[in-house]
Amino acid sequence: AVVSTQSTGEDFGLKRHAMAVYNRATQDVLKEEQAEMFQIYINRATACFGVTHTRQIYEQALETLPDADARIFTQRFAELETKLGEIDRARSIYIHGSQFADPRHCSEYWKLWQGFEVSHGNEDTFREMLRIKRSVRDKYSTQSSFNVPPTTESVVATPADPMAAIQKDVQFVRGNNSGQSSVAQNPDEINLDDDEDDDEEEDDEGEGEEGDEKIVKQCIPDEVFGGLAEQANKDNDEDIIGA
Q: What pTM was estimated for this model as a whole?
């Protein structure tokens, strides 16, 4: 009996030491080998101490592994708790792992959770699962829209001052029109304004010349006035006599 107890203690001590070695190995291996090392660690812990001893290892794996591997270990951990009858613990694990599962690309995760709620949940828990699914989908959609770089087709250069650009274009068009009108001018076209100005200048010159001429008196024959001339002469004579 003493020998069997001693051997059992040695075996237990070796197992504890082996678990410590596996634990260090999960941190020392390469990133791409961590998931495999965690699974070996879980399998050995299950064989040595039972499935309940693996909970701490699963929790450590979810905190250490990248999202894709953490999602897989979340599914395994939730299935383990479901088998053990820990429904609330399993649901909490699904909720925690939802942050790693984009519904647009990880449909298997949400199918497992949906089946879990159908089998073990109720209407309220099922609705809560759908609400979380929508929230996670919106989060990943927002991140995708911010991370996508703009394409050259979608980039449209906008001027700093649109009104200045419009005024610049208008001035450019006016400049071209003025240049075209000067070039397209008909050399044979008669300028009526110039002719009117010339006529006005000639009229002014004619009036000036007439003003400079002396007024010349001429005698008009009496025959032109007829009887009016005789009557006027007679009135003049009477005025002279009366005077």
A: 0.55
